[in-house]
Amino acid sequence: MATNVSRIVIAGMSGDSGKTIVSLGFLTALRQRGFSVSVFKKGPDYIDPAWLSEAAGTACRNLDTFMVEPAIVSQRFVSHAGDTDIAVIEGNRGIFDGRDAEGTHSTAELAKLLGAPVVLVVNATKTTRTVAAVVKGCIEFDHDVNIAGVVLNRVAGKRHLAVISESIEAYCGVSVLGAIPRLGDNAALIPGRHLGLVTPAEFESGETLENRLRDIAEDHLDIDAIIDIARDAGPVDVETVAEIRNGKRGKTKVGYFKDTVFTFYYPENLEALEKHGARLIPISSLSDQKLPDIDALYIGGGFPETHAEQLARNRSMMASVKKAAADGLPIYAECGGLIYLARSLHWNENVYPMVGVFPVDLEMHRRPAGHGYSITRVDTQNPFYPVGTSIRGHEFHYSAPIGGGENLASCMTVDTGVGLGESRDGIFSGNTLACYTHIHSDGVPDWAPSLVSKAAAYAANRNNRAA
Predict the structure, then answer these.
(1) pTM, entire model
(2) Burial status of residue 467 (CB atoms within 10 A of its CB: 0-12, 13-18, 19 or more)
(3) Residues annotated as part of the active site
(4) Confidence (pLDDT) at 186
(5) Quick check: helix, strand or coil at residue 423?
(6) Rg (CA), the chain
(7) What's the whole-number mean pLDDT along residues 346-374?
(8) Beta carbons within 8 Å of 262's beta carbon, 6+ residues apart
(9) CB atoms within 10 A of CB 403
(10) Do 329 and 253 form a contact (C-beta atoms < 8 A)?
(11) Pick the CATH number of 252-466 from 3.30.479.30, 3.40.50.880, 3.40.30.10, 3.40.1280.10
């Protein structure tokens, strides 16, 4: 399978280089000009993709070759880019930063996989001609990566811009495609907190932000030049991977928390549940008083800590979830969902009661307790995974069990990462399983059919009892 879709990677020299602002501004400008766009984020992430989705007006897809096989990553890119006018891929961290010294799973490797040219975003704070040396180094570092232009961020003024631009064009052979001035703290655009930016679900000034992003792009980016680079990407061949087809879609009711608290869901995870026969039922952990008639519950990640008081006030929902778990409802929870199912959460010198499915108290720390890719092995019988299953995922959590998690019933050995601590993750009770590990369904293909199958069995047993 081949594609000629116009495509561009917006990469950076490091985290916080400005690639998200450039990506959001460019997407906003494209839509204002009437382009149909598709949008992607390299690496495991939920918050940046949520903002990219808002700017693009369509779901952002994550492309990650650690969690998902490269052949599947490239095919998903082609299928979701489809017939759009242009595909925009935002990188993560520095362009060559990967899992090891070879840069495995880096933005650069993804750009090569997709045959996509790169626009490099550089933070120009307190430097001039040295920027050209750094850009030149990136160009020479890997000749298979097509660095086609540079956008400068946090430029101090006209003289600052002139020296850097002349240096880059003289020594690097690429053009400066934009120069964004110092805008002050990025919180002036989108507020941040301990995990990064706030989510769009919690942001109320969307129209104002859209106008500002459009103005930034129109005033400070050479949009036409970036579009031309994307159009010159050329064809790329990808391996064909069989798609799931299932005629039973919609028969099994799988609920999932969807509100300002729980927003961390990969679109593919929800779609995989539907492809295997689930009808998804959105539920609010804040405003709904009890679980509806469902056959399983999926609780993704999010920010239960910043909503802890509101969650704790909705005791009727917590009681409903606890009773459902005791009655055998299949429940799968990730990170924030694990916090919700714990006994309590300690944060900022306050203690908030949670659902209490698991006899564990969690404490929020000032620094991440677990952050990065993870590899776990299932070693104990549990509701959803066969023993021996290897899971590649990621974690990003500030919470950890008080007193450690070694006494909790768990089903996974952590080979890479932190999990609950003591090299364990995956606490379970009855038909409920909760992990700090986030998964992507394309990388764990047995997850969705297992959850839907468990839900169908629960529904059948309930119907038999009712009869």
Answers:
(1) 0.93
(2) exposed
(3) 335
(4) 46
(5) coil
(6) 23
(7) 96
(8) 256, 285, 299, 300, 301, 302, 304, 336, 337, 340
(9) 11
(10) no
(11) 3.40.50.880
